[in-house]
Amino acid sequence: HVPKETKLVVIGHSIGCHINLEILKLAPELPIIRSFLLFPTIERMSESPNGRIATPLLCWLRYALYVFAYLLLKPWPEKIKSFMIRIGLRMMNLQNEFSVLNVLEPFCLANAAYLGGQEMMQVVKRDNETIRTYLPKLTFYYGTIDAWCPTAYYEDIKKEFPEGDIRLCEKKIPHAFILRFPQEMADMVADWLKDDLSK
């Protein structure tokens, strides 16, 4: 559905970077001029520090989460759910700028747990072939304090593709940058894009 004359810029964050590479591989006809992979979880997810914790929870214990969600959260009134979410956001020092009530719906929790489990099992090996094919279009941005893709992953991919545009964050921006650093990331990506857009 993308017109041939329309040029695309694809930006992925976390598991979105894995999807980014899949788009390049499965739809090579798309007119993608640039692809940004921010804090990319494109390999060894279950081996990462967060993955070692998340894998048993999401792959083996998720059924316990389903039972907990249906027995405890389903009967809660909306006011209690809303109150609990506000407390959680306040504890994380975040403002409630959007409606997140669905987060405490059992169906939503079950789907999120299933998706997370699938990611842990399927995102294992880095797709070097696709990266090699599209390397001139790719910009990778790794974090220094990222427990989903530690700096060892950055160092490995940098060795494999020394000519690639593979950057390491110098600002200590966390993996979940959208919570506190959305403007900084937007400004950075816009700056990186200037040359491509001017062509």
TrEMBL record:
Belongs to the AB hydrolase superfamily. LDAH family. GO terms for molecular function: sterol ester esterase activity. Gene3D superfamilies: alpha/beta hydrolase. One of its GO terms (cellular component) is lipid droplet. GO terms for biological process: lipid storage. It catalyses: a cholesterol ester + H2O = cholesterol + a fatty acid + H(+). Its EC number is 3.1.1.13. This is Lipid droplet-associated hydrolase. Pfam families: LIDHydrolase (PF10230). Keywords: Hydrolase, Lipid droplet. It is found in: Lipid droplet. It comes from the Eukaryota. It comes from Mustela putorius furo (European domestic ferret).
